[in-house]
Design brief:
six-stranded antiparallel sheet, Endonuclease III, domain 1, DNA Methylphosphotriester Repair Domain, alpha+beta, disordered C terminus, Arc Repressor Mutant, subunit A, DNA-binding transcription factor activity
Length: about 525
Amino acid sequence: MPSSSPPLPLSFDACYRAASGRDRRWDGRFYLGVTSTGIYCRPSCPARKPKPENCRFFPSAAACVAAGFRACKRCRPDALPGSRDWDHRSDLVARAVRGIRDGAVDAVGVTGLASSLAVSERHLRRMLLDEIGATPLQLARTRRAHAARTLIEQTTFSLTDVAFAAGFGSVRQFGETMREEFGVAPSQLARGIVQDRPGLSPLGSPSVALRLQTRAPFDRRATRAFLAAHAIPGRDAIGADPDSPTSHAIDVPGGTAAVTIAWHDIPEVALQQPGMLGVPVSLALPSLADTMPAIGAVRRMLDLDADPSQLAAAFDTDPVLAPLVAARPGLRLPGAREPHEFALATVLGQQVSLAAARTLQGRLVAGYAAPAELETTAPADGQHAFAGHISVARIAAETPETLQATLRITGARAATLQGLARALEGGLDIGPGADRERARAELIALRGIGPWTVELIAMRALGDPDAYPSGDLILRRALGVAGAREAEQAAEAWRPFRGYATQFLWADFLAKATPATAPSSSTTPRKEHS
């Protein structure tokens, strides 16, 4: 029987069985290349399955293209959300994949990516070829091509605008890559249903409406409630109606973008069809070049690359989690839109309620964010001016006494905030592509930062799905244990998805503890610092 290289999540025989059974649970986790046609498909493709000797299996779409295959026009494997299989790993290849997914090659090139990983370009290229079957440039090119096709199908951008919005350096490069990926020129790709015409925001910057793909089910109510509970004044605008849109500032290379999410246009979980689901968002951008970074931030913020079926399979025999997952099949693990902002906000939120934390975070924005850069139509109060990014450099340069007076916090909290800001300014990396264990070690070494804070930052800023705040009070109550050590022992079987397990435990406990008439807080644990 043929062998598969590079490594796959399943053996060749298991991959062939999954593809023969059109098992959509494996969509995005491996791809089928058909040597007799030169086409690659998702496992659930409805086309007649080829003979085993004509099949090759790959762990990524980029590996398929690198091997000479182009995307199937029927099952559209290029339209799949990303796989989170790389997110629970902390090795070099996983960090590189996360960095490329978040635009590192576009921002700093392969040289800069390799430097951030402390390896040579040659070594990075060899490692990615061995593990994934594609080079860093091929992975980045496939990422741009898939984004470009989405823009072609969902907007009325000119092809030139599509090329630069998707991160291509030239129209010629755009055309060559699209032919390589899809077998046709960009002009031959059909325009799909246009969600909205791209236009200008109130200040004249580009705006575009898209439906970002995610795997169903997606719990819109729980996700919106989470964002509402953690909204920062000046950076988020939340309407009172639980179905109303929300707007959020997003930091991008060109300045501040804004995303508005149309929650009412997402079906309830019970009404969602299996497969892919489109989440409707509108982006107001400083420039077209900020399209990809903004989309990436929104995908992290809403956890749109989650795979509910993978989680269900991981927890289906667990006596604690299986019923919780069955009751909340579309629950997500929202990420931080900007790692530095989240870390600083988390320090301010230690040992206080969510309401008090929001007040302190609003003061942080008022005192240390860039001036309002962008206006957008916000659901809470019409035209809304969002503050720009929070300046870590300004906070690092302050004295603890000034921070204490400006934010009205204790001297100890001010010293911790300044210490964190100085560490971030000095190069502490807490983004999705960071070395997680190094980041944890550097965070815990800072005075005033304990394990709870470190794991919250790991969960939402570093994007570690296995992060686990074992000292959290609500988590311990949900598990019925007295201490962090017992909580650690109870969760050992949940690796590498303890972060998701925590989210399910928080949601279930708080839902039971919250009166039905109270505003939803099902995914907002009380801040408990240990």
